[in-house]
């Protein structure tokens, strides 16, 4: 339920890739997970500002604070140059709200709904689930974010037939995420200085008056 791949062949190829190239996929997954933790722990407003920066631009919306995993996946997709784009949704499961990351295809089309081809969806809380091989019925236990990264890796290597230099990809990925965070922090510093200058200018006018 929390990791759905809407194509049986792709699902099997992802399972094969997770078995064959587990260490490479794990390396990318660990980077995504570390950035999620860093962004949520670094500053109270950073999650909303970070996700907004990725999906909206300079305007930020506090409601975007829960979309950091989706934003980090969008950046990884851009770095890997796979023909996908990210969206999100919330699913009610009893008293719980499950946040979903949705991967759409940007290369396939359905008549009247260009680009709206759902490739996969998974929960962003990194819960452990079991994937079943459609042919052998063998079950593989993985976390949902690991599965999400495995989907990107499989599309890049199996379907696009391009090798993934994980170290090079992660160097670009970490640099991009860091740049976004630095831009946000720099903007906040400039805003604080502007507010301080305004306060002193107004205060000085009152004194002089």
- The helix content, as a percent range, equals 55-70%
Distance between the termini: 68 Å
* Spatial extent as radius of gyration: 21 Å
Counting DSSP H or I runs of 4 or more residues, the number of helices is 6
> So what's the overall shape?
elongated
Sheet with most strands: 4 strands, antiparallel
Strand order of the largest sheet: 1-6-3-2
H/E series: EHHHHEEEEEEEHH
Overall pLDDT score: 89
The number of E-state strands comes to 8
Please state roughly what percent of the residues sit in beta strands, choosing from under 5%, 5-15%, 15-25%, 25-35%, 35-45% or over 45%: 15-25%
Q: Structural class, judged by helices and strands?
A: alpha+beta
Low-confidence stretches: none
């Amino acid at each position: 339920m929390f990791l759905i791949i809407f194509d049986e062949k792709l699902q099997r190829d992802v399972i094969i890739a997770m078995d064959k190239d587990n260490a490479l996929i794990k390396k990318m997954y660990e980077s995504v997970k570390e950035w999620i933790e860093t962004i949520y722990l670094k500053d109270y407003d950073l999650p909303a500002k970070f996700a907004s920066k990725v999906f909206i631009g300079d305007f930020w919306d506090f409601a975007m604070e829960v979309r950091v995993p989706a934003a980090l996946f969008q950046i990884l997709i851009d770095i890997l140059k796979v023909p996908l784009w990210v969206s999100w949704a919330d699913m009610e499961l009893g008293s719980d709200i499950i946040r979903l990351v949705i991967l759409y295809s940007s290369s396939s089309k359905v008549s009247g709904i260009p680009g709206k081809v759902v490739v996969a969806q998974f929960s962003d809380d990194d819960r452990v689930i079991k994937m079943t091989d459609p042919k052998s019925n063998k079950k593989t236990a993985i976390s949902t974010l690991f599965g999400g990264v495995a989907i990107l890796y499989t599309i890049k290597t199996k379907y696009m037939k391009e090798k993934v230099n994980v170290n090079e990809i992660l160097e670009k990925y970490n640099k991009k995420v860091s740049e976004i965070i630095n831009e946000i922090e720099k903007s906040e510093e400039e805003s604080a200085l502007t507010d301080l200058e305004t306060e002193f200018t107004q205060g000085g006018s009152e004194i002089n008056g």
